[in-house]
Design brief:
The N and C termini lie far apart (80 Å). This protein is mainly alpha-helical. Strands 1-2 form a two-stranded antiparallel ribbon. It is built from 9 helices and 2 strands, in the order E-H-H-H-H-H-H-H-H-H-E. It is globular and about 95 Å long. Helix 1 packs antiparallel against helix 6.
């Protein structure tokens, strides 16, 4: 009986692990730096100017008024405060190259300041609207007051809309946001009616706007005016949603520099 000679074990290849040992894992390759990929200094500067314009108009009104609380009760002042805060934050993010603020927050802010501008020019400054405040304020709107009035009702709304259309990337909005944005105007209406009910009759600016003046029109008419304005605001919110779907994105090569400061992104 013959036996076959035992073959010698084959030595492992250099690229194979020894028996019983795990294969060495490849060393991780260094990836891109997680920091900001691009900065937008021109967008940051424009947004900082919008914030400054809103703050300037607010400051002038506060300095020229004898009642800080009355000034702060106006929708115009409240929405400009919101613009000042949101656009300052957006300017900082654009300057550092951080991700932008949520789309619903920036668009909601632009919606509110647009309401401020439209209501003022279409109703409050329109002698034929039936709710004009022109006769009450014409004598006082000179010099600094006129400058503040134009900043709060014209310059800031137009600049905010221009920034949204030209410098803000579209997307991130949903139909439910249109209803969500109405919560603030609804809360402001409740504030106006409650404040007016608590103040004694004849108080100055008991109702900040004539279309919600219960003393002049009564509750049914004031609420009817509020419903009409609310539907108009909702239509404007839907308009922003529609525009967001069709407007182009900002040009990727404009107003941007690399995080190293090496120049425009290619």
């Amino acid at each position: 009986m013959t036996t076959e000679p035992h073959s010698a074990p084959t030595p492992p290849r250099p690229d194979e692990p020894a028996p019983g040992r795990r294969a060495p894992q490849p060393a991780p390759q260094p990836g891109p730096h997680p920091g900001p990929s691009a900065r937008r200094p021109l967008a940051a500067a424009f947004r900082a100017l919008i914030s400054l314009a809103a703050l300037t108009g607010i400051a002038i009104n506060l300095l020229l008024s004898d009642s800080t609380l009355r000034v702060l009760s106006y929708f115009t002042i409240q929405t400009n405060i919101l613009v000042a805060v949101v656009f300052a934050l957006a300017a900082r993010r654009a300057w550092k190259g951080d991700p932008p603020l949520p789309a619903w927050a920036t668009t909601g802010t632009v919606l509110y300041i647009s309401i401020t501008g439209l209501v003022y020019h279409a109703i409050l400054a329109n002698a034929s609207s039936g709710f004009s405040m022109t006769d009450e304020t014409a004598a006082g709107l000179t010099g600094w007051r006129e400058a503040a009035n134009q900043l709060l009702h014209t310059a800031t709304p137009l600049a905010a809309v221009a920034d949204w259309l030209l410098l803000t990337r579209p997307g991130g909005l949903r139909p439910r946001h249109a209803a969500l944005w109405l919560l603030y105007p609804l809360a402001y209406l409740a504030f106006c009616l409650l404040r007016g009910a608590l103040m004694p009759p004849g108080s100055e600016a008991r109702y900040p706007y004539p279309f919600v003046d219960v003393d002049q029109h009564g509750y049914p008419a004031a609420l009817r005016n509020a419903v009409i304005l609310g539907l108009s605001f909702y239509a404007l919110a839907l308009t922003f949603l529609t525009l967001d779907r069709i407007r182009p994105a900002p040009h990727p090569h404009r107003n941007r520099i690399s995080s190293t400061g090496a120049g425009p992104l290619k």
